[in-house]
Amino acid sequence: MVHLWPIALDQPPSVVAALHAVLDPAERRRAAAHGDAVLSRRFVVARGVARAVLGAYLHRPAASLRWSTGRWGKPALADAAALCFNLSHTADVAVLAVSGGRPVGVDIERRRPGLSAVAFAARYFPPAEGDHVRTGGHDAFLRLWTRKEAWVKAAGDRVGRGLALPVAGAGPVLPVRDPTGRIPGSWLLHDLPAPPGHAACVALAGTRPVRPVWPATTVSGRPFAHLNIPDRCFFHVAEPFCRT
Asked: Which one-letter DSSP state was computed for residue 204?
């Protein structure tokens, strides 16, 4: 089972302030380094809500969590490595994936009007995938891109290495291996529902079947109320993700 938390990133100042308070100094510096105030606030919300959710799993205060990073920058919990997670965001929405003990990666992307998907795929993707994007357009490109990104993030590898990974297939569930062996092992890709104009995918180590669960649709008792995180952080973006 993998838990997926969709997060609405545009929040009122009171929520942003409450979430900023649980960040560590390095996260606050990263937030301040954004040249755009909107991007800064969205970063704060994404990281703050991730801390709140992960802290709830561990029964610990959000501010007490400490991060470590892998060779290529993948974050992990420094003192709770068994709780695997990954975070992805695009524009005003993010998705947090949580998987106990199974390396996980998630990606969500929004359609980019200025990107030439056909030209990009022809240059960087395997030839068969370039042809697929030529016939399927931007939707096909987003589906392939999120699969590649989620896989590389799950493996903790370099993002650039994912471009050549073969991920074409009918889906929504696709077992994959890297034919070059640079990313070892077997992996499972699971396409996710997403809002219009978006695509999303979660990847997990191994090929054991997985059931995506969206706790935000059933969360009860307002477990994050003590952090002044209103239900709207989850609920008003949850429905497009959870449809079947």
From this structure: E
Q: Pick the more confident residue, 81 or 230.
A: 81
DSSP state of 44: H
CA-based nearest residue to 98, from 58, 141, 54, 136: 54
- For residue 85, give both structure tokens: 């997670």
243, with CB counted inside 10 A (0-12, 13-18, 19+), is exposed
Question: Within its chain, how far is the Cα of 99 from the centroid?
Answer: 12
Q: What is the CA radius of gyration of the chain?
A: 18
Contact 106, 148 (CB under 8 A): no
Q: Does this model's pTM top 0.85?
A: yes
13-20 and 37-58 are packed helices; what angle lies between their axes, rounded to 10 degrees? Answer: 60
Q: In the numeric block, which tokens belong to residue 109?
A: 């992307």
In what helix (H) or strand (E) does residue 49 lie, and over which residues does it extend? helix 37-58
Instruction: List C-alpha distances in Å: 186 to 4, 97, 128, 206, 236.
Output: 22, 19, 21, 5, 35
Where do we find the tokens 């993002």? 159
DSSP output for 160-173 = GGGGGS---SS-SE
Residue recorded with tokens 């590898």:
157
Residue 100: predicted pLDDT: 86
pLDDT, tens digit (0-9, with 9 covering 90-100), for 23-57: 999 999 999 999 899 999 999 999 999 998 898 88
Rounded to whole angstroms, the Cα distance separating 96 from 235 reads: 14
